[in-house]
Amino acid sequence: MDGTVRFVATCRVCGADDWLDVLSFGSTPLANGFLKPADSYDGEATYPLDVGLCRDCGLLSLRHLVDPRILFDHYVYVSSDSRSMAEHMGRVVDLCWQRAGLARRADLARRADLAGRAGLARRAGPAEGALVVEFGSNIGLQLDLFRRRGLRTVGVDPARNLVDVANERGVETVAAYFEPASAAAVVGAHGTADLVLGRQALAHIPDLHRLVEAVDVALAPEGVLAVEVPYLLDLLERNQFDTIYHEHASYFSLGTLCRLFAQHGLRVVDVERVPVHGGSIVVFAARDGSSWTVRPSVARLLDLEERGGLRTDRPYLEFADRVRRVTGTIAELVRDLVAQGQRVAGYGAPSKGSALLLACGLGADELDFCSDTTPLKHGTVLPGSHVPVCSPEQARDRAPDVYLLLAWNYADEIIARERDFLAAGGRFIVPVPEPTVVGAGTRRDAVHAAAAS
Ligand code: TMP
Ligand code: ZN
């Protein structure tokens, strides 16, 4: 192995080396490594994709990590502007507003400002308003919503191409990894943060301790850390094997996050399950010694994890068995349709779509194309499976008989929107948790159960 891949010998949370091998997907290309169409893809780089459980702290982790510079310096994943994601981002603002004391901070700032205007006190300077710092802020869609609620915001994201877009949109964003040095620079310029937020970012960060050290640098004494991560219990129960790919180094339970944060003087004070990305948790943590008290939601979810046996081998081995069965069923279903002369295409070209096709052994022999709303992906081919990506407009002109719903986390929204396709006899295969064929006659609750979103 060259210097681009690092073997994970000891756990990145607790340092133990007692691993359970859960699943191996062999050596695969990066899920976001979209390629220009070519006659041959012989030179395509692949990297080992194995996932294991740390039996000590319960971290589910990749056993090989690809150098983050290869993964993230130029990033094609642009935050979705879909309806359901916009709704979710609004909910995150509301949650943080209630749970992270932003309402109180904003109120104090407003009163100071009013008092200042009345000549009663010094006018509130910018440092007196609540500050939100988001790491992995992408093009700034989430921060924009905080800004509209009157808060000050700073984004930190390593992908220059996305940082440029965020700044052009007026969301101040620094091109950097969120580390103690970049956190200190943000504090120097703006003061400490009332809220440090990381949405769907933690899984991408190999050095978890350095990340939490950066949080420690950035966070005000009474500030709150909020992280949103895909939830391990949902991953296991809903067979979401395609969310396992090189960018996602870690798959978290609440118990493991409690243990990680505790090592840095932070304690989890609240948690909320949210449906985004197939099931996620938003975890709130505050400094030991701060005035924040722990809500009952924390003990409740820890108890659920205990009852689900998350600290034992069983749920992981059962998950691996189901994944072998489900990937086989998806491949069989698609191959049978193609053999019957049906045209099959992918709906969406998300990174997990690349992962799904590779895990199922499907590719350009079975799928005509994948349609995706992201302009950066148009005219490329998917890594590994080499299925061409086109725009939804192009896809409408050559609609297939069946869409394999690769963007299954938006199943409700997409299936509702594609009623003309369904009315014309088109069908969807929703691949997880159990491969399910959805047509015009399928009842909505069955679709919902299939999508489990
Ligand atoms: P995500 O699950 O990581 O947000 O990625 C979703 C991908 O699916 C992204 O590439 C955009 C694409 N997509 C569509 O092509 N059509 C849609 O209707 C939606 C919601 C997403
Ligand atoms: Zn561990």
What is CATH's topology name of the largest domain? Answer: Rossmann fold
Query: Structural class, from helix and strand content?
Result: alpha/beta
Tell me the strand percentage band: 15-25%
Number of strands: 19
- Looking across the biggest beta sheet, what order are the strands in? 8-7-6-9-10-13-12
Heterogens: thymidine-5'-phosphate, zinc ion
Mean pLDDT: 92
Give the C-level CATH assignment of the largest domain: Alpha Beta
Biggest sheet, in brief?
Answer: 7 strands, mixed
Keywords: Methyltransferase, Transferase
GO biological process, one term: methylation
Domain C-methyltransferase: 275-433
GO molecular function: methyltransferase activity
Can you walk through the features of this model?
This protein is an alpha/beta fold and 453 residues long. It folds into two domains: 230 residues, Rossmann fold, CATH 3.40.50.150; 138 residues, 3-Layer(aba) Sandwich (Rossmann fold). 37% of the residues lie in helices and 22% in strands. The strands form four sheets. A seven-stranded mixed sheet has the order 8-7-6-9-10-13-12, with helices on both faces. A six-stranded mixed sheet has the order 16-15-14-17-18-19. The radius of gyration is 23 Å and the shape is globular. The site of thymidine-5'-phosphate has 13 residues, from helix 14.
